[in-house]
Design goal:
The complex is a heterodimer of chains A (about 110) and B (about 110).
Chain A (H helix, E strand, L loop, with lengths): L3 E3 L3 E4 L5 E7 L5 E8 L3 E8 L6 E2 L6 E7 L2 E6 L8 E8 L7 E2 L3 E5 L1
Parallel strand pairs in A: 2-11
Antiparallel strand pairs in A: 1-3, 3-8, 4-5, 4-9, 5-6, 7-8, 9-10, 9-11
Chain B lengths: L8 E5 L4 E6 L7 E8 L6 E6 L4 E2 L4 E4 L5 E6 L8 E9 L12 E6 L1
Parallel strand pairs in B: 1-9
Antiparallel strand pairs in B: 2-7, 3-4, 3-8, 5-6, 6-7, 8-9
The chains are: A mainly beta (about 110), B mainly beta (about 110).
């Protein structure tokens, strides 16, 4: 079974803090993704990575950055958290472009 | 990627078959139909996908009409644990890596 794990299920941070969300997959997948999910808006892609040290912007990259130093790990960074980044953050991975994506359990981030 | 239309909500009695419809009238020849579901406060879970032929796995069956303009996901014997939001996604393998999730169908399985 594919396992995608995320470092926290719930996180509360203050405005202006730097926030790190970690994602690890154990299936040697090439591609990893970060989405955010908000009521009425569905899932929106923030960034994805198709290889170590490679990254591509998704639809809503503003205010976020990512890091992929190892194949199994993909980090999402909020440089200076703001209240409008309060959301559910979902990490996913897949072995290639035409394959289904496997999701982690999500991190519910609240920025106060 | 083609747009999809799903009913916002449905109910199903426990033990009965749940049939979840999806319209994708603008689907093109190289686009697949994927189904995911999301149980409350969890990440989406892949269920099944298909191109033209009907597909079945241990979780569900996918019936795609001959003109491919619509499909139905069938959960043969719904249980309370099948209560979730079900997403129908149409996607080409050539359009990059993103899956576009809409608002889906909220299925409630009733005891």
């Amino acid at each position: 079974d594919v396992k995608v794990t995320q470092s926290s299920r719930y996180l509360v941070k203050r405005t202006g803090e730097k926030v790190f969300l970690e994602c690890v997959q154990d299936m040697d997948h090439e591609n990893m993704f970060w989405y955010r999910q908000d009521p009425g808006l569905g899932l929106r892609l923030i960034y994805f990575s198709y290889d170590v040290k490679m990254k591509e912007k998704g639809d809503i990259p503003e205010g976020y950055s990512v890091s992929r130093e190892k194949k199994e790990r993909f980090s999402l960074i909020l440089e200076s958290a703001s209240t409008n980044q309060t959301s559910m953050y979902l990490c996913a991975s897949n072995p290639g472009q035409s394959y289904e994506q496997y999701f982690g359990p999500g991190t519910r981030l609240t920025v106060t | 990627d083609a747009k999809t239309t799903q009913p916002p909500s449905m109910d199903c009695a426990e033990g009965r078959a749940a049939n979840l419809p999806c319209n994708h009238s603008t689907i093109s020849g190289n686009e697949y139909v994927y189904w995911y579901r999301q149980i409350h406060s969890q990440g989406p879970q892949y269920i099944i996908h298909g191109l033209k032929n009907n597909e079945t796995n241990e979780m569900a069956s996918l019936i795609i009409t001959e003109d491919r303009k619509s499909s139905t996901l069938i959960l043969p014997h719904a249980t309370l644990r099948d209560t979730a939001v079900y997403y129908c996604i149409v996607r080409s393998a050539n359009t990059g890596n993103q899956f576009y999730f809409g608002t889906g169908t909220s299925l409630t399985v009733i005891p």
